[in-house]
Specification:
The termini are far apart. The chain is built from 4 helices and 3 strands, in the order E-E-E-H-H-H-H. It has helices at about 35, 40-50, 60-70, 75-105, and strands at about 1-5, 15-20, 25-30. It has a domain at about 1-75. A 3-stranded antiparallel beta sheet has the order 1-2-3. It is an alpha+beta fold and about 110 residues long. Helix content is about 45%, strand content about 20%.
Length: about 110
Amino acid sequence: MEIKVIAKSSGDSPYTVSFFFEGTKVFANCTCKASEFNIMCKHRIALASGDPSMLYNQNEKNKLDKIVKCIQKTDLEPLVSDFNQIRVSVENGQKRLKQLKRLISQKMQTKT
């Protein structure tokens, strides 16, 4: 089965990301520059992990849901699950670091 979605890009042109499911195997291609150099791009990872913010068109949310459901039936699922948990932890850690930096700067004064 093949599922294609359009991903946001940092430039003007969105990218096409194609997922192929063959039994328990998952293949994914993207039309971005990183993929041209055979580097796992942020578009494939974000979409494989179910991140709707990477969709260029939110009307493709149903396709993203299908991608996630197909991945759940593969050995990629525990890796994607761990990735999502760690991503949330990192985001929370970054927020906390920002809070602490602000608190430290409020308490620490500059000597003149």
